[in-house]
Amino acid sequence: SSGINAEYGGCPWKEHLYQLEAAADCQGQVKYVLYSDSQGSWRVQAVGVQGEGFKSRKPLPEVWRGVRDEKLSDLTGIPECIFVHATGFIGGNKTEEGALEMARQALQM
Following CA atoms 86, 54, 93, 105 in sequence, which dihedral angle do they give, to the nearest 10 degrees? Predict the structure, then answer.
């Protein structure tokens, strides 16, 4: 598993992901889920630890947190970044490819 899952269509994914992981005996392997938002941009969201409230399995890198737009793109080397939330649970990019690269880099950090 790459640790990344792309979601298309806007369905609720958290409980479904936990169920799929349990059925496949691979709990905790997916760290990030990608999905498009209502404006056509993409989000990379850290998967939460089941039953742990707001705790993420692997939050987005601390050095990215709270950084936006061109500053974030300069910092990551990824074009068209939008933001990373101050807690690292979610970030955004204008393209699917950019969001995927954010997730890939985050897995390596």
Answer: 90
Rounded Cα gap, residues 80 and 69, in angstroms = 7
Helices 69-76 & 96-108 angle (0-180, nearest 10): 50
Of 52, 59, 44, residue with least CA distance to 89: 59
Contact 33, 60 (CB under 8 A): no
Half-sphere exposure of 14 (CA within 13 A, CB side): 12
pLDDT in tens, 62-106: 999 999 999 999 999 999 999 999 999 999 999 999 999 999 999
pTM for this prediction: 0.86
